Amino acid sequence: MLLLTSWFFEKATGGGAYKFADLFKEKLGISLDKEDEMNCLVAGANFLLKAIRHEAFTHMEGQKEFVQIDQNDLFPYLLVNIGSGVSIIKVDGDGKFERVSGTNVGGGTYWGLGRLLTKCKSFDELLELSQRGDNRTIDMLVGDIYGGMDYNKIGLSASTIASSFGKAISDKKELDDYSPEDISLSLLRMISYNIGQIAYLNALRFGLKRIFFGGFFIRGHAYTMDTISFAVHFWSKGNAQAMFLRHEGFLGALGAFMSYETHGLDDLMVHHLVERFPMGAPYTGGSIHGPPLGDLNEKISWMEKFVLKGTEITAPVPMAPPGTTGLGGFEVPSSKGGTLRPDASALNVGVLHLVPTLEVFPLLADPKTYEPNTIDLADHSELEYWFTVLSEHLPDLVDKAVASEGGTDDAKRRGDAFARAFSAHLARLMEEPAAYGKLGLANLLELREECLREFQFVDAYRSIKQRENEASLAVLSDLLVEIDSMTEDESQQNAKAVEGADVILGMLPLARELLRRGTEVVLVANSLPALNDVTAMELPDIVAEAAKVILEGMGRAIHTNFNARFKCDALKE
Amino acid sequence: MDRREVESGRNSPESNQPAAQISRLAIDIGGSLIKMVYFSSGNDNSVDYREEKSPLAVSTALEGKLHFLKFETSKINDCLDFISSRKQLLGGWKHDDHPGSDEKFIKATGGGAYKFTNLFKEKLGITLDKEDEMDCLVTGANFLLKTVQREAFTYMDGHEEFVQIDHNDLYPYLLVNIGSGVSMIKVDGDGKYERVSGTSVGGGTFWGLGRLLTKCKSFDELLELSHRGNNRVLDMLVGDIYGGTDYSKMGLSSTTIASSFGKAISRDKELEDYKPEDISRSLLRLISNNIGQIAYLNALRFGLKRIFFGGFFIRGHAYTMDTISVAVHFWSKGEAKAMFLRHEGFLGALGAFASYEKRNLDGLLSN
User: Fold this and answer.
1) Contact B262 A167 (CB under 8 A)
2) What letters, b where the CB count within 10 A reaches 16 and e where it falls short, cover A528-538?
3) Number of domains within chain B
4) Which residue on chain B is closest to A148 by alpha carbon?
5) What is the pLDDT of residues A113-161, one digit of tens each?
6) N or C: which end of chain A has fewer CB within 10 A?
7) What is the Cα–Cα distance from B361 to B367, expressed in whole angstroms?
């Protein structure tokens, strides 16, 4: 989000913009253009929900699930922005919204009260404490009042909180006798639950099924999201759903940025943006620290220094089971003890690359539900398998990449840096598969390609392909002569024989054959030596008329698009 | 008062006892407090120091007084001692299902009625005859609203105004009982109700958090402190964020609280640097405002215009009532009204008391 940070200074939002306008003018000579805060929030949320794939997700009992929003069926929704206080906004369209409610019990309350009660030095420290807390020492539960029994008649189980901090009325214990961990958890549950409840009551008022929660209070914190989700689920009896945004902390800033109308970003569609995760992503949890890295050399030396200083961070760390709340969402988090990371759920956000020339492939049967990935790495066994494959293959890939650049010392240094950066990505993803959003095999392979490109390996397989192409071209003419001599039946039977150099000895003869029969043939290839989705295909107008789609190659037809449906016949090879 | 429907499977306290049977006691054992209601015959003028409200005079076929007492649940022995000292007053009445037995019963409600069953049995030889908590709250509230004059009142800007309730136009209403936690009950008639919502941010939260933050020794002391406090010290107001100008476009004035305790995030000050008075005030506003808001949202859901607030948290405390009223007024844009009950803390205990005998109580206390 480096780009947006710099924009943020010019295009300010949040109450602080009003307060600090003079300061900015005086110290920096920059005048703040005070965009209306709500406007910014709504514009930011609409943009994210429309333009970024799998921006929204649900979070129940420690399980994240990405939701693809149909942009034609986005409105109306309820946007709950949890900053210091909480704003609850009903959104009916672009620029059409109303602040219908809010509450003064928000992130500022958690942090303010938490600081007074625990002497924590930072919000994150307070949040981290809650991971190890047990709220039962401070909260009065239904079971405490009913002597361990449920109050079934009105649907309250013994573990339901009857009164937050209700046990602290005991005159046997003072503040110092309670552990800061327990206090933090009680406070977090009180506030998250309250926000979830008020949000749901407002959604009910306007008949809204979808509630999106954003703002800095959440910080991708699993327990916070679980508690809010539980509250919404509990009060709505499962009819309403709490959803969260990956870029939750940037709503206001994004919206302020969006208000530069000249950029014409309003019309962006989901396929115009590609999110990429630069090498720093695994370390930073989404926020970029330190000076901006300008050139390749800086990147490499940063990588070298960082990995030398902090190898322990890049190694996969012990991970608690994904569930954080146990049954009912009201129990204590199970991810206690032995957890090195502050929170299993922290999400990384990448840099959004704008590619306005991209169009949706017109022959997809249903572009809305199109999912290129054949293999979803949310399946843990798949995940482990592919991580092993990629890790084991890494040294070989580095050798090939270095060779493709002539095997110079510079290439070797870049190769090392690439290996470190990609290992860090892998470690981060192993730790938190959803850290970069929904993860399919294609995304992972694309991440590897992107990482190679970041260290300026234009095409790692260039020299190998050159060799193969030369060999294939040498036999091409013989093959064509052979094919021409075949009858129709024979050529079909021998289709399987042409493998290996698939394009030259496979696709070219096929195209030639089709052309000879009077068919118009469009040959499409990627501009980058990578695994790109069909959405990236160009020449849409020409292709739209096609009667048949032939997808060829492992990247195009097996681990992506294998399950894709098209409007016309499709051959996947 | 109408006969309440008794749930199937429960012992019906159908009474065939003589009307002269006058000494009765019922308790509501909550998470923090035990509320007691008992009836004494006409010539008893003793007043116990634990009495929370002046006794309610009764003069129909029966002459006497209803007494309202409270004990802390953590000091339940005080309550046991009190009952033990009055045990002779309890003599004579027996459980309807066991007319031959000498076993003594007390009507009891609240979670503690379950939790402390054995304690009462062992120490006093008394069986707690349990009544459902929500049943009792509703029975108590209906009873007060229908039979006690000048029971309900509104409170705005320090001004108390009694509300005359038309018996035929009482239902439906929202009953918000603020004890340690908060129950919100939609009441459609005698024994006809539904617990529609609630919140864990209630009286226990005020007292529990308040104790941790201020070292106060009692709930009343904490409330007392709030009188002299200023919430602007700790609360982040809209004006603090927007540099003193109103954020009027959203209907927020500069004095609206944007974030309760939001100013406490400052690194310059620790807990000791804040005055207990200011802390208590901010806490009271946080909780009252929140309850008022959730109550209003629930009233809106069911189209209820009247919201009655009861429970021990309120304690006739002006600022508490004011904050709740303002919250309801603010969120409903003046459409809904918060009302309070003079015997707010005793709804459950009264309901349990009333369950002794529906027939004879009907009209008994209509004075």
Assistant:
1) no
2) ebbbbbbbbbe
3) 2
4) B115
5) 999 999 899 888 998 899 899 999 999 988 888 777 777 776 677 778 8
6) C
7) 12
